[in-house]
Every structure is written in C-alpha cells, then in structure tokens.
C-alpha cells in the first residue's frame, strides 16, 4: 500500500492536515479515516460496505448498516404489524400501544412517551425559543411553528375551503374553519358536557369549574378567568369610556 501524501493548509490560526489516497486521489480528513478508506483498495478488513464504501467499527454496526441497503427490517410490532430495522426503535414504538410515559417534567409533572418530547416541553418553562424568524426575529419553540409563521410573511394561502372558497395559511386553520360548516364540536367539557370547536375555548371554559383566574390586574390585583374580562376591567382605571 502506498504511503499517504500529507497535505497541510492554514485556515487563519488553525492548521489542518489532510490525507490523499494515492490510488484514487480521494482527500481524507484524518489518518483513521484514510486507513479505513484504503481497505476498499486492499480488500483487508471485514467491515467495509461494498455498496457505499463506509467503514464500520464492528460486525454489529456493519450488520445494521447493510440493512439500509437491503431494506431489511426484522423487528415487527405484534400489535399493528409495523416493522423496524433495530430493536430499540421497536421498543420506543411499543410505548404508543402501552401508553407508558416514563419521561416526567420536574416543573409541572406532565409526562411524555419520549425524552425528546420532554426536552421540547421544558422550553415552555424556560421560555427558550431556539428557532427564529429571519424576517421579524420572532422566536419559536418548535421548527414546525416557525415554518407555519413564515407563511404569514410570504402571504401564501394554499389551503382553500371548497364550500366557501375562503383560503388559509395552514391546514389546521382550514380544519377549524370547516367546523363552522359542519357544526362539529369535538372538544367536550367533562363537568357539564358543553362542546367546543377548539381546545383553547374548552381550556378557558374549564376555569368556570376550577375557579382559576390567571388574568390579574396590575393596578388593583383583581383577577379574572378571561383576558377579555381583564381588558374590560382596565377601563375603570384608564377612564376609557365603556362601550354601550
């Protein structure tokens, strides 16, 4: 096997050495990667993928990697028949059937199926919003929320109601609108059986039963169940005329 040609280049203050394969001219970033790559040419070493040339560190990782090319998924869910490439993926999936939620928020006690879901939820408490809009700088907890928001800048309203031809930015907004045509109210109060079209409306309604009043006046400390009630009350402090 030919000795690698070392090529050094300076990037500001950092020096980086690359290894060039004398067989095919490929540029490798480190000696370990170069050594692994050369096995493609020499044929030595049992863990080289013949499909893409990737070098695997063990027979187990090599076995899993080859399934990507073969499409093999040997792990089957006995509940719904869904198949998986690895057993950990199947175990995570089975939680959907058992309903087991092992990941608990230490702030509010809410539980989740997956650790990743808990990580995202914690941003509600920390107010962390890592996804920012490049147009207005508004931050979001989830990338999906950012993508939905960005449509408000483009003006694209790709979802249309076929009954009245009104258009909407998101599929969720269209779905909520369609309930005005169907009369569907899928959210039911467990205390009085009252029905609502949106979860937000049910949440506000539940305060009647729980007595919760989260909207507090900063002037006198009076609390209200709804924000609209607080805004109406604030006029008594500002002197703004009450609407007739």
Q: Count every beta strand, where a strand is a DSSP E run of 2 or more residues.
A: 15
User: Going across the major beta sheet, what is the strand order?
Assistant: 1-2-3
Overall, the morphology is: elongated
The H-level CATH homologous superfamily of the domain at 5-70, spelled out, is Classic Zinc Finger
Mean pLDDT comes to: 79
Structural class comes to alpha+beta
The helix/strand order is EEEHHEEHEEHEEHEEHEEHEEH
Strand coverage percent: 15-25%
Question: What is the gyration radius calculated from CA atoms?
Answer: 29 Å
SS summary, helix count: 8
CATH architecture of the domain at 5-70: 2-Layer Sandwich
- N-C termini distance: 92 Å
Helix proportion range? 25-40%
Q: Mind describing the biggest β-sheet?
A: 3 strands, antiparallel
Low-confidence stretches: 1-16
- The CATH topology of the domain at 5-70 turns out to be Double Stranded RNA Binding Domain
Name the CATH class of the domain at 5-70. Answer: Alpha Beta
Write the layout of secondary structure elements.
Blueprint: E1 5-11, E2 14-20, E3 27-28, H1 31-42, H2 59-70, E4 75-76, E5 83-84, H3 87-98, E6 103-104, E7 111-112, H4 115-126, E8 131-132, E9 139-140, H5 143-154, E10 159-160, E11 167-168, H6 171-182, E12 187-188, E13 195-196, H7 199-210, E14 215-216, E15 223-224, H8 227-238
Antiparallel strand pairs: 1-2, 2-3, 4-5, 6-7, 8-9, 10-11, 12-13, 14-15
